[in-house]
Design brief:
754 residues; alpha+beta; Glycosyl hydrolase family fold; 2 domains; six-stranded mixed β-sheet; 23% strand
Length: 754
């Protein structure tokens, strides 16, 4: 039965539901500020894999916290968090509070009436008998615990999973091992002296004040009559003493949670105000600002008073005026998160890239990192897309060391193995790629003998071949920027290696064995096992068919021309899953958020709706972008279709909601889509502004009838970075019917077709 609600009633219902997630003090505010639109709970129930967490954190700051449960449906909290280190992991330390007699290192508790903002967190625990309020600064935080029944004594427990705990009256400090060569520290204090304090031993508070062992906890008991307990603490990757300095620098000597809240709110408003919009619906503004807030979750700044600890060599360094950043999954974030920052916060992007160049040096290999986490480079996923960040930054005028960037990126691509999820030196398969121009697939049923190949992740030969071709194109762009014509020509030639796995009969990229034969009986939807990893990577052949970001002009030629490309794009959005959902997603859990075979839920698909611009049909890009945003990004608990990956996906939402997108990092250009808002202003460095006016834009009016850029007629479905870097005004006339001629002959930049 197809039950439809009237549109007006549905919108009112959605608005009422969305208000449930807005703190009451903000609902009553006289003026709505940017941070008031942020709903950290969007996506807090996942479609299949990892949800978004309601993260409490100042932009790109080390202090990062979210509730200690699996997702929003989790019945209990496993204590209260103190700091999350690597993205999507658990808290390094835990704080628990209980009025019960049974003491444990971590107290599991019920929770209710939870409210999160980007800068503070409130929840009622223990069947609403204890109120919790948390506020964060950059490297410190403060908890305020309110006891509704002060007739019972209360105990606060501080826990470290593997480290040292030290107490001194109302003061506590601790360490926790994060990896072989890395620890994290906290130093904190309560606002009043406890009645009793000591290490937790067999459920009792002992008189010991120092402990160093796995699962160590300290207990602080407060007497009957205590109504409120405050605990504030600083964190550090250098030492307990530095954690104490960080706390003093940010909070002074006061236990003023109100000030920490006000400071955090001010910082977020100043940050989010880089983008201002008019028009659209309240839900669209909420999705926009929530998505923008997500882009500041990673990477995090590790600098502490001009110094930082690096897990890449296990040493403390002076940052020399360049704050040091880590925790970034580049495979996800190079596509849109880094270009967004390069546009709006170029100085921060410069420092981030400099951090990664330093990591390459500190590791000793001079290989550009691919997955720089707090604990080092984990080399996850495939390809070496740090090179895209460098190329993109250079061509957009950022101050990046091109020589070091080229050298370390080249080394990472040529000296390290291309095998996914491996940091081993290049081996036999890498030599094969150099000789033959493609990464070989293992014939079905043949046992893997290459030692570097992960038994689950497998070879991912098409993903590696296409990704490396793009990386080599990025190398050619850096070489061209430096005026090294021979190197630019060399790597441009290598960037066509995707052609070596193109099947002209099927018009798909098709895995080949070492003999040069396409794998037989191959199904582009289902072959390759879980996530098609024996052929592609997390996604099937329909996604990787379009993974030639740098040369979509050549891809159109391979498909038979622009009209043929447009038809094949239409097929992608229309092709059925081919199996029941439970069967399909059992094989492709990353490939959710489907419109046909297109998946909105995984990063290799983000640019696909914009490819119509290259196929001479920009009006279809306009249609698809609106369809993707409206279908899969909503102001509700399941409003994100897949793993968000700390800005990897939500930066697509930010760009696309504003009306443009960087399809090819490495080209200083942006494709035009379909803005949601009638008026959008993006602050650029130096007091400049990109102003996008979409006259008449609405749910129905998604098509561009005509355009001007800086007052002159504009018939291109793209604009360059140079067009806007000194400020610009783009005016779009929007209607409910497409102008199929607008922009149809002005193809966006691409490497030359062969």
């Amino acid at each position: 039965m197809n039950l439809q609600l009237p549109t007006q009633n549905f919108r009112l219902t959605a608005l009422a539901i969305s208000l449930l997630f807005v703190p009451l003090n903000l609902q009553s505010a006289q003026q709505t500020e940017p941070v008031d639109y942020v709903n950290p709970y969007i996506g807090s129930i996942s479609h299949l894999l990892v949800p978004c967490f309601p993260t409490i954190q100042l932009p790109n700051s080390l202090m990062r916290i979210y509730p200690t449960r699996g997702d929003f449906t989790g019945e209990y909290l496993d204590g209260l968090p103190m700091i999350v280190t690597n993205h999507r992991e658990r808290s390094a330390f835990r704080l628990s509070v209980t009025q019960g007699d049974e003491l444990r290192p971590i107290v599991q508790t019920s929770w209710d009436n939870e409210q999160s903002t980007p800068y503070d967190y409130r929840v009622q625990i223990a069947d609403c008998s204890i109120g919790v309020h948390l506020a964060v600064s950059h490297q410190s935080a403060i908890y305020e615990l309110t006891l509704t029944d002060p007739s019972k004594p209360a105990t606060v427990l501080l826990y470290t999973a593997d480290g040292r705990m030290q107490l001194d009256g109302r003061y506590a400090s601790a360490s926790q091992r994060l990896s072989k060569n890395m620890k994290i520290y906290f130093s904190g204090e309560f606002d009043t002296d406890p009645q009793q304090a000591g290490l937790l031993k067999d459920g009792r508070i002992s008189d010991e004040w120092l402990g160093e062992a796995p699962r160590t906890a300290a207990a602080f008991r407060f007497p009957k009559g205590t109504k409120r307990i405050r605990f504030r603490y600083g964190v550090s990757l250098i030492s307990e003493e530095q954690a104490e300095k960080n706390l003093a620098r940010e909070q002074g000597r006061a236990f003023d949670i109100g000030k920490v809240v006000r400071d955090g709110r001010k910082i977020w408003n100043e940050t989010l105000a880089n983008i201002t919009v008019e028009g659209g619906t309240p839900d669209q503004r909420t999705v926009l600002y929530t998505s923008y807030y997500r882009t500041f979750e990673r990477p995090v700044c590790l600098s502490e008073d001009g110094r930082y600890f690096s897990a890449f060599d296990g040493k403390v360094h002076a940052d020399e005026g360049h704050p040091f950043y880590s925790d970034d999954w580049i495979w996800d974030t190079y596509r849109a998160a880094h270009p967004l920052r390069a546009l709006i916060q170029p100085k921060k992007e410069e420092d981030i890239i400099e951090s990664y160049l330093r990591m390459a040096e500190q590791m000793g290999t001079k290989w550009m990192p691919t997955f720089p986490e707090m604990t080092g480079d984990t080399r996850r996923m495939n390809s070496n897309h740090g090179v895209a960040m460098v190329a993109d930054a250079l061509w957009k005028g950022l101050n990046v060391d091109a020589e070091r960037g080229f050298d370390y990126c080249r080394r990472g691509i040529e000296e390290k193995t291309l095998v996914p999820w491996s940091g081993a030196p290049a081996g036999r398969l890498d030599q094969f790629y150099k000789d033959k121009g493609y990464f070989p697939a293992l014939p079905e049923g043949e046992k893997e003998t290459e030692p570097n190949v992960n038994s689950f992740e497998q070879r991912q030969p098409i993903a590696v071949t296409l990704g490396t071709a793009y990386d080599q194109w990025c190398l050619s762009r850096i070489a061209e920027f430096m005026g090294k014509k021979d190197l630019a020509a060399k790597y441009l030639a290598l960037s066509y290696n995707y052609r070596n796995v193109w099947n002209a009969e099927t018009l798909f990229f098709h895995p080949k064995d070492e003999k040069g034969n396409f794998l037989p009986n191959f199904d582009y939807r289902f072959s390759g096992g879980i996530g098609a990893r024996a052929a592609y990577g997390e996604n099937n052949g329909w996604t990787y068919r379009w993974d030639v970001q740098h040369n979509l002009a050549d891809l159109a030629q391979l498909m038979g021309g622009k009209e043929a490309m447009a038809r094949e794009l239409d097929r992608t959005f229309a092709e059925p899953l081919g199996k029941s959902k439970w069967q399909f997603y059992g094989e492709f859990p990353d490939q959710t958020g489907n419109i046909g075979q297109f998946t909105m839920a995984n990063e290799p698909s983000l640019h696909i709706p914009y490819i119509y611009n290259y196929a001479g049909a920009p009006w279809k890009t306009q249609k698809r972008i609106r369809q993707c945003l409206e279908t899969w990004f909503r102001n509700d608990l399941m409003g994100v279709p897949g793993d968000e990956d700390g800005g990897g996906m939500t930066s697509f939402v930010v760009f696309s909601s504003l009306g443009f997108y960087p399809v090819t990092p490495g080209f200083p250009a942006y494709n035009i889509g379909s803005p949601l808002f009638t008026d959008a202003r993006i602050k650029l460095p130096g007091g400049k502004e990109l102003h996008i006016i979409a006259k008449g834009a609405s749910r129905e009016n998604k098509y561009i009838q005509s355009a001007t850029l800086n007052g002159k007629p504009w018939d291109k479905p793209w604009f360059s970075h140079d067009d806007i870097k000194n400020g610009a005004t783009l005016v779009l006339e929007m209607t409910d019917r497409p102008n199929k001629q607008w922009g149809s002959t002005a193809t966006p930049p691409s490497a030359p077709a062969k």
